[in-house]
Design a protein that fits this description.
Blueprint: E1 30-33, E2 35-38, H1 42-45, H2 55-79, E3 84-87, H3 89-94, H4 96-104, E4 108-111, H5 126-138, E5 146-147, H6 156-164, E6 169-170, E7 180-183, E8 189-193, H7 203-206, H8 219-236, E9 239-241, H9 246-249, H10 252-268, E10 271-274, H11 276-294
Parallel strand pairs: 1-9, 1-10, 2-3, 3-4, 5-6, 6-8
Antiparallel strand pairs: 7-8
Helix pairs in contact: 2-10, 8-10
């Protein structure tokens, strides 16, 4: 409850200016950051560690390693696409074969915390989640350059830590349709932000668990939404950022939906489908060129 008008500062929550309208490579009209979040059982235990004893509930997350991820990788090989997989450190430790399979196929691994703990402001685990996540991925020879916050949340302490750790980009904020450079509270530049698109989060559309019941929408409804969003994004010259999960989109009906949508995207021929690192590097190149031109 707000006790005083002084409780909430009178300023925008994001101090970055408008996202620059840099051109996409090879004359493409729009871009798609194709990305997946690998949570496995941390999606359940991060809310309550006692859930680890509820084995049927945990099996929703376990599906990811047993079936979901292999099916997603198979689909990406079929379509000759590369994606970013934001991976919790816990998954890298508990299911090392998952990380190795992603790397073998040439995909990008991003940082997604260690145990998928919510990075609320002032949380005591923000630094340890970062450090342990880096350590777990390093055991596979990976030093990620991209970060997606667990539960998609962020705070100033986290943004500052990402810059300190030399991260290239974040993909958590939902406030734009193009990449932009974050501005920290002290006015200094932060990492590149690649905003994910809320409507492409399959968790909210296609998963119903015993302790998280929600409607499961049919393919026709979701495909209609995704196509309309993509078509308008193409008209804007903007970017789609997916938030897909192998424990959702790796299920039969959802995989068929994803295949159909990706084939539609490929048929458009004017969408650059790329990893987070590729898009962030392109942004940096354009940003540097714009600075040079301004000088």
């Amino acid at each position: 409850m707000i006790r005083s008008y002084d409780d909430v500062p009178v300023r925008p929550s994001n101090m970055a200016g408008p996202a620059p309208e840099f051109p996409w490579p090879d004359g493409k009209r729009a871009a798609m950051m194709l990305s997946f979040d690998i949570d496995a059982e941390t999606a359940m235990t991060s809310k309550d560690p006692a859930h680890a004893e509820k084995l049927v509930y945990m099996s929703y997350g376990g599906y990811e390693a047993r079936v979901g991820l292999p099916k997603i990788l198979e689909l990406l090989r079929e379509l000759n696409l590369k994606a970013t997989f934001f991976t919790t450190g816990w998954v890298a430790d508990a299911y090392p074969a998952m990380v190795e399979a992603v790397l073998k196929d040439g995909h990008e691994i991003g940082h997604h915390g260690y145990h998928h703990l919510l990075p609320d402001p002032g949380s005591p685990h923000i630094e340890s989640e970062l450090a342990k996540g880096f350590e777990a991925l390093a055991r596979h020879g990976v030093r990620p350059v991209g970060y997606r916050a667990p539960y998609g949340e962020s705070c100033e302490e986290l943004r500052t830590a990402l810059k300190r750790e030399g991260m290239l980009y974040s993909s958590s904020w939902r406030d734009d349709v193009r990449p932009y450079r974050q501005v920290l509270s002290d006015g200094s530049p932060g990492v590149v932000e690649l905003p994910p698109t809320a409507g492409y989060d399959d968790w909210t559309l296609g998963l119903s668990t015993r302790f998280g019941p929600r409607p499961v929408f049919p393919k026709e409804h979701i495909l209609s939404m995704w196509k309309d969003d993509l078509d308008e994004t193409r008209a804007w010259g903007a970017m789609v950022g997916t938030v897909l999960h192998p424990l959702v989109s790796g299920r039969p009906m959802r995989l068929r939906l994803l295949r159909t949508f990706l084939l539609y995207t490929l048929e458009c021929r004017d969408v650059w489908i790329a990893t987070g690192e590729q898009i962030a590097r392109h942004f940096e190149t354009c940003e540097a060129a714009a600075r040079g031109g301004a000088a």
